[in-house]
Design goal:
alpha/beta; Rossmann fold; 9 strands; about 20% strand
């Protein structure tokens, strides 16, 4: 059984390591940018070599729910959890990191949040264990492509579509440089070393209103999230092998799950799948 977790409002963004509440979800804002919210969970007995888990919401912007659902897993596995909030008025393009002229850069905002959390918790670890659902999975895999040195492992939950490891396609369809994302360069030799798992519900086969229905995307990636996830994982694995890498890639179907974060957590055991892939050897043996 997973531990119960309290939810509290952290009203003082200047709190230091010694006063951070452990074992409760903290609703915080960046000290140097009070408009940027995030949720933080620091498990009991956290050490300064604790791993950092980041969970990114979809277009429903349900960062609070992500924090509530994943906090018990973070406590069990003794990892620090960050759930950033990217509001639609400031980050309308966060799924694609935040292209030029389309709002603020979500990748930069996450980097600032992580920097603050590592300072608050005195954490030495700089690589992230990254999860995203739907639009958050779009962000997560593109962040991995852009910042491979900052990412240890990734789990993607039901992304609507993907950036493929193809240097002949312009970003965000592929890795060709784009003026819309200045100063970002993609290096396959780096990001192809990162283990990735894609999770999609077995009932997530509807072409709903939120799905990218571009004819080009349909033709190249498939017509459903199930098809697109399989094709992307296959493409990543093929490219890794072509570079002589044996990086692990996985594709798992979540039972009885439609395109819903809540139902995928409850029915599909997405939390167990995610933390099993990311932290298979880090669970506290004293917690059942």
């Amino acid at each position: 059984m997973l531990p119960q977790v309290a939810f509290v409002m952290d009203k003082d963004p200047s709190l230091q390591h010694t006063t951070l509440t452990q074992g409760a979800i903290l609703h915080r804002t960046l000290a140097n940018n009070p408009g940027q919210e995030y949720f933080l969970y620091v498990p009991h007995g956290t050490e300064n070599d604790a791993k950092i888990f980041v969970t990114v919401h979809g277009i429903s912007r349900n960062a609070s729910e992500h924090a509530q659902k994943f906090a018990p897993f973070a406590e069990k596995h003794k990892v620090i959890m960050i759930a950033p909030h990217f509001p639609s008025d400031r980050f309308p393009d966060y799924q694609r990191l935040g292209r030029e002229g389309k709002g603020e850069r979500a990748d930069t905002a996450l980097n600032e949040i992580v920097a603050e959390v590592t300072n608050l918790t005195w954490t030495r670890v700089r690589q992230l264990y990254l999860f995203g659902y739907s639009g958050g999975a779009q962000f997560a895999h593109r962040y991995m492509l852009a910042y491979p040195e900052r990412v240890a492992k990734v789990v993607l939950g039901a992304a609507g579509w993907y950036t493929f490891p193809d240097m002949n396609l312009r970003f965000p369809k592929g890795l060709q440089e784009s003026r819309s994302l200045p100063q970002v360069r993609f290096n396959p030799e780096n990001f192809l070393t990162i283990p990735v798992c894609v999770l999609v519900g077995e009932q997530d086969n509807r072409r709903d209103a939120d799905l990218n229905k571009s004819p080009q995307i349909d033709l190249f990636q498939g017509r459903t999230r199930l098809e697109r996830g399989r094709r992307w994982i296959n493409a990543m694995e093929h490219q890794a092998r072509a570079h002589g890498l044996i990086t692990p890639y996985a594709f798992h179907v979540l039972p009885r799950s439609p395109h819903s974060f809540t139902l995928s957590m409850h029915r599909g055991r997405m939390g167990e799948e995610t933390f099993g892939f990311l932290f298979a050897n880090s669970a506290d043996p004293n917690i059942p």
